[in-house]
Amino acid sequence: MSNNKFLKDTDLNEFKLKLNDLNDKLTRSGKKLVIAKSKFSKREVDKEFVIKYSEEYKQAKANYLEACKDSKFIDNFNNAKSQLKNAKKSDDNYQDLYNQYKYSKALFKGYKIAVKERGFGGELYALNNVALKLDDIKFKYREDHPYAVNGVSVEIEHGNYVAIIGHNGSGKSTLSKIIIGVLEPTKGNIEVYGNKVTKSNINIVRKFLGIVFQNPDNQFIGSTVRDDIAFGLENRRIEPSKMSDIIINAAKKVNMQDFLDHEPLMLSGGQKQRVAIASALALSPNILIFDEATSMLDPKGKNEVKQIMIELKNTREKTIFSITHDMDEILNADKVMVMNKGQLVKFGTPKEILSDKDFLRSINLDIPFVAQVEEALQNLGLKISGSENLDELVDKICQI
Ligand SMILES: Nc1ncnc2c1ncn2[C@@H]1O[C@H](COP(=O)(O)OP(=O)(O)OP(=O)(O)O)[C@@H](O)[C@H]1O
Ligand SMILES: [Mg+2]
């Protein structure tokens, strides 16, 4: 083994992901076997049925144990050790060999911990710039129900701000729950930054994702704002020494740094939602979903949260999905997804979407206020269109 053939952190990461996957399959087949045995005891199935699941379980166990026995980390360590042993302190590369020895030793230790923790802690990386790729996603809540999401395909590049609109019951929330992995699609594939989402990697994929829901009161766990933001970090086993800075930075992003020791329930609706956003941001998700995050707030709270969403958009560090009934909000978006009866019926820029107002009305959607005024002016013979906000519209009117 030459120097450049030594293992790296990425090898350990791959090992963890593999072990995590096989452990997941093992747990799953174990559960299936228990169910099969219970059915057998109630005479609902025959012995063959149990044997089939028993074989599957044995195979999953063998695969898992085989993967645990991976000898490459010890071989790598032994190799580094022998190279160091054969070198003299006066050799030019002695320090490099010593560093390699220490590194290989740490990797071997990492391997042992990974086996003990059954592959916990493997990381997925962004493999491309496509934040989310949905391929023919279908979902129904029950077998005898119609599809709540019915064949949605879309590709969203990193850094986009996407508004999702649609009448009540059109499948927006269901789709967001599928994206964050709370619901498993009945059919179709999902890729997050090029990583195909599977049953066994969904927990790892979730690290890319954060969500802020509608009701600010349902999102609190901690007794202070600080505890609340810390909760998700503890779940992710973030080192305690790093937590304080992460919490303060997240609170600053939503302008709540002066409220860290306050009780969440004593805050205003807008402040609560800002804390919910901070809790999500603390986990550094690449994709942030807002499911009607402003709909239960008073006008002041709405504006506070909308302002934060625009600030987040302007950094272009995150891909943002905003599910909204507030049609004025779509003007801020880069792309708009229009849902109707579980289907993605239109996808385009706000201008493209608003160019067909009759279509929007036909699926019971309002038109943004600015677009309504433009339409009224157009009916009076004035050529005004495409204003992104009220100020722009006023400017255009003044120029006539
Ligand atoms: N837990 C559930 N069990 C059964 N059916 C459900 C469940 N949640 C939603 N549905 C149904 O799935 C369909 C899509 O609902 P979903 O909540 O995704 O729509 P939505 O676009 O988010 O609506 P809204 O604008 O009202 O929030 C609807 O027909 C709804 O009745
Ligand atoms: Mg909804």
TrEMBL record:
CDD domains: ABC_cobalt_CbiO_domain1 (cd03225). It holds the Pfam family ABC_tran. This is Cobalt ABC transporter ATP-binding subunit. Its main location: membrane. The keyword Nucleotide-binding applies. Belongs to the ABC transporter superfamily. Residues 132-366 form the ABC transporter domain.
